[in-house]
Amino acid sequence: MTVQERIEETINTNPVVLFMKGSPEFPQCGFSGQAVQVLNACGTKFASVDVLQDPDVREGIKQYSNWPTIPQLYVNGEFVGGSDIMVEMYQKGELQSKLSGTDG
Amino acid sequence: MVTPGDIKNWIESGLEGAHVEIDGDGHHFNAVIISPLFEGKSRVAQHQLVYAALGDKMKAEIHALSMRTMTPEEWRRERGE
């Protein structure tokens, strides 16, 4: 499988998945930590991928979404945004609506 | 070191009609970007336009950039005009 195929499979088999630096317990970057906090505040279960463990995924995910930064949130196969967009959507209640109805 | 003014110039010269309000310490930057090109676009598409204006600078010079994107109309509303 190519890295793009692996990424696609991860995104399509997890209703909510966060590509981040580090783990939800130990984020390795402030933006990734913020993304985890927002998802926790929504009470959503989510899968996570630590891009620091895999340089191919770290670069590949940027190409996949045409988005140059990490973290990246995907819900039901769709790219939702990075941490700034997650915070903005959370503040407006939009993220909660998008996440309700996912099983995590 | 990258200054907030550098980033402002890069975005404003790469994105037609853009106005950038920015502060930062050389490592972390907070920017509000206002452009008529954002009209009718999703937030993801709006941020992608900014990233495209910055190009490879996102990979090298700019370590951490937080941004909010707004249309001129949203910007006026935000400022209560």
Task: Furnish the topology, listing elements before pairings.
The complex is a heterodimer of chains A (104) and B (81).
Chain A: H1 3-13, E1 16-20, H2 30-41, E2 47-50, H3 55-65, E3 72-75, E4 78-81, H4 83-91, H5 94-99
Parallel strand pairs in A: 1-2
Antiparallel strand pairs in A: 1-3, 3-4
Chain B: H1 4-14, E1 19-24, E2 28-34, H2 43-54, E3 64-70, H3 72-78
Parallel strand pairs in B: 2-3
Antiparallel strand pairs in B: 1-2
Helix pairs in contact in B: 1-2
Descriptive notes:
The complex is a heterodimer of chains A (104) and B (81). Chain A is α+β, with helices and mostly antiparallel strands. Chain A has one domain: 3-Layer(aba) Sandwich (Glutaredoxin), CATH 3.40.30.10. Chain A is built from five helices and four strands, in the order H-E-H-E-H-E-E-H-H. Chain A has a four-stranded mixed β-sheet with strand order 2-1-3-4, with helices on both faces. The longest helix of chain A has 12 residues, at 30-41. Chain A is globular and about 35 Å long. Chain A starts with a helix and ends in a 5-residue tail after the last helix. Chain B has 81 residues and is of the alpha+beta class. Chain B has a single domain (4-78), classed as BolA-like (GMP Synthetase, Chain A, domain 3), CATH 3.30.300. Helices cover 37% and strands 25% of the residues of chain B. Chain B has helices spanning 4-14, 43-54, 72-78; strands at residues 19-24, 28-34, 64-70. Chain B has a three-stranded mixed β-sheet. In chain B, strand 1 (19-24) and strand 2 (28-34) form a beta hairpin. In chain B, helix 1 crosses helix 2. The longest helix of chain B is centred in the middle third of the chain and has 12 residues, at 43-54. Chain B is globular. The termini of chain B are far apart. The mean pLDDT of chain B is 93. The A-B interface holds A 30-31, 66-69, 79-85, 88-89 and B 43-44, 47-48, 51, 58-59, 64-68.
